[in-house]
């Protein structure tokens, strides 16, 4: 039977914390980029009244 020490908890918490920070930053970037969706000069077009954006 092994006893979990503080070192084990730290080694477990670091990857989980990095994952959460990365997810937060990715979500913030997605929110920032929604200002530009469907507004590209090359691919942009006017959406109809019941048409959803091309990406979330």
From TrEMBL:
GO cellular component terms, A-Z: mitochondrion
Pfam families membership: NADH_oxidored
InterPro entries: NDUB1
Source species, domain of life: Eukaryota
Name this polypeptide is given: Putative NADH dehydrogenase
């Amino acid at each position: 039977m092994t006893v979990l020490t503080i070192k084990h908890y730290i080694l477990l918490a670091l990857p989980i914390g990095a994952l959460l920070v990365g997810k937060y930053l990715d979500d913030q970037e997605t929110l920032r980029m929604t200002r530009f969706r469907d507004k590209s000069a090359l691919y942009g077009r006017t959406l109809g009244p019941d048409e959803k954006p091309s990406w979330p």
